[in-house]
Records
---
Amino acid sequence: MKKWFSFVLLIAISLVFLTGCVPELVTPENSIDSPAPVSEGGSAYENPAGSGKGTLKLYLTDAPGDFKELNIVVSEIKGHISVDGEEGEEETGEWVTLKEWPDGLAVDLLTLENVSLLLGSMELAPNHYTQLRVFLMEEAELVVEGNDGPDGPTESHTLTIPSSANTGIKLNKPFDVVEGMITELTLDFDAKKSVIQTGNGKYKMKPVITVLSGNYSPGELPGGTGSVSGNVSYYASTETSLLGLAGANIELTGGAYIFANTTTSLAESLPEVSEGDFALLDVPAGTYTLNVFAEGYTSYSGEIVVTVDTDTPVDVVLLSEEPGGMLGIVKEAESEATFIAGATVSVSLTGGIITFDSEVITGKNGEFILEQLPVGDYDLVVSAEGYDDYNATATIAVASGEPYSDLEIGLWPESEEPIEPEPTI
């Protein structure tokens, strides 16, 4: 079955095609609604007079363990900025929030084998940092293989991480944010070493995290980068327009790369940003899969290609109602036994908000099924070699989650005068 969207007025999809391999690097992900780092005192965090800023990119990866899942929730990452004291005094400093997730960022660490998830990309004043603190929710979930083996039911265990929510996990890793440079920090979470079996099928967790760092200039990223941006909106049959969808999850995957973001809401948007907008910056050139999903809506998955120094716009429409479908048979008119194989059944959504077209070829017994149709009324056309086209004189209604069953369509041979009865249900 072949399906395609053509989004009118608000929707324009532009995909640029390019062949080639994705470089084996860690993944930048950019959040256009990331909060700026905040300092309680502010003085040490202010941009020194006359200097520019550097970029700090925080990544998370995992050395996997022999588990099915290891789910953690990250709430905040802080950095400690050193401040030189007066002569003869010890070095002091202050803690600043580098990245914060008020509702928590849920991550299954075992999905990060051989890939890295960018937690945040921040523009910061040049400074020397002495430590990081990673704050996790105090409970993690471990999913392991059950007694019946890999094909049987799994077992879930709650793991407590003491003090991780209050004081955080202390990581002694000095690093510098340098003007005009990119500082890359990768938090390598060792799942196997972090989970300890205590006997009697019980487990506990003591996070083991290694910090890897590096500095490079923006021009040193192999292969060059582009960006992906667009808008996510939703369509419902009761609406008269497409509406921007805030909080939709955006995921871009390809090779060693994972990018994650959510669409903006009007409450957090800049004046030039609309509800449902998203942007993924510094994406290495290559071919990716874009997945968009939100609770209560249909999902979207499609392939896109990112090229160097180019923005790839991808606007997506989700459905707020479960789609329906049509099914039936095509046969010769006034015949009970002559079914027509290879006929083309085409439908087009009416109404003008969006256009949706779907097409399918009948099977050997004249049968067809059209699935994932947005709720609404459709024009129906059926054509087959040697027969006159069938054009329904009334639209066919599709309801949410319900196939339009027993649709029977008769075609007249070209030599005969066609009569177009309504399809019987």
Note: The radius of gyration is 28 Å.
---
Amino acid sequence: MVQLDRIDHLVLLPDGVSANLSEDGDITITGSGGSLTRSFIHKKISVLQDGSGLIVRVDLPRRKEKAIAGTWNAHLNNMVKGVTDGFTYRLKAVYSHFPMTLKVEGNNFVVNNYFGERVPRRADILNGATVKVQNKVEVVVSGMDREVVGQTAANIERSCTVKNRDRRVFQDGIYLVGKE
């Protein structure tokens, strides 16, 4: 079995995007959309600054270190995409009999009249995500941080789960229809 002596993952930084590495392991990526900071700390894996980008390097990797290096590469690429383009998740409300109303109240997403319920259902909107309701049934969640946008969309989708009914028949709810 051949063992690799070094693995390097290259993260390219496009024009207008800069990276700042601090000594305590925090990496800040700044672009036209803003800046994102994340901590990358491991005793065998290092992140180095190259002329055209960042290098995630691990020497004499074992299976776990290879996996962590690949994960860090994906996180850094997501941060670069977030500060340049951002992330957008599109959801759609589906109902058959009781028309539900959707609105944003501060840091909460409120669903009224779900299956005719009198108590509104609520979902948390995390800091860094913006939620808009379009055409009464379309919900657009956008932001720079992919994890925050995805978790906010999941919170909205989870707020309308069907309980004590056959899900094959009662398919009302809010569902993810696209990611950009």
Note: The helical segments are 63-84, 146-158.
---
Amino acid sequence: MASQVPRSAALLISVYMDTEGGAHWYARLRSFDDPAAGAHAVRIATEEELIQAVREWLAGLVERP
């Protein structure tokens, strides 16, 4: 039986242009499983990594009981 407890989550994607550092860009993902709690942060360097990280975050969210 599905839980009746409401859940919420957020994913913040920040993209930084880094022409001086050698990379064209990089992104930071911050996921909040509970808006009242701290965030989990990850640094991403490629578009493929960014897409995979978003997919994994979303899959983990919708598959949780």
Note: The chain has one domain: 10-63.
